[in-house]
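Data availability (excerpt). All sequences and predicted token strings are deposited with the supplementary files. A representative entry, Urease accessory protein UreE, is shown inline so that the format can be inspected without opening the archive.
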Amino acid sequence: MRTIDKRIAPPAKLAASLVARAPTLTLAYDERCKSRLAATLDTGEAVALVMPRGTVLADADILVADDGALVRVVAAAETVVVVRARDTLALTRAAYHLGNRHTPVEIGADYLKLAADAVLEAMLSRLGVDVERATLPFHPEAGAYGGGHRHGHDATFAEDYALAQQVFAQRHGDEKEPAGNGGADHVHSHDHDHDHGHGEEDSCAHNHRHSHGH
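Structure token line:
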């Protein structure tokens, strides 16, 4: 079995004929995040994908196998939710609430795109935006700090998260504090289930369970 272990970093320029002849490897977003993956080229050949940890492959990336052969990445079409709104403010609010849940989101000029999720779709509908399922390639935003998702063990995560929660609370006046205690005993506990897979199944898909205890 051949091993694919290198990505040709841009702005490397390859002859168009070489790229055209390269076999393709079609992967969904979650698969493109894995540093270790048993995969199958579109030709039917089984290969082992072994990339540096933290690599997120993108559509049209060119990879190199251990025998020097090229492989071109194709982003698979998958079930996604496309979010549109009648005005920029509504779309921005939707992006804020998705970000507060650490949801991977693809951001376009007039749309948001996320993996299909019935709970998030219901939330978005309550926000008044248009929600539609589609089958399309999915290219979420990369992390602003060069990695994808930031984790609780990052040095500044606690401060950033506390600030985000403060902003969230200030903008949700309809969530009243219990009468009689001025809000002093209002406690938020946040349990995060991360599919980190720091072994051979690294993944950038993260599931977050938020529980609010009062």
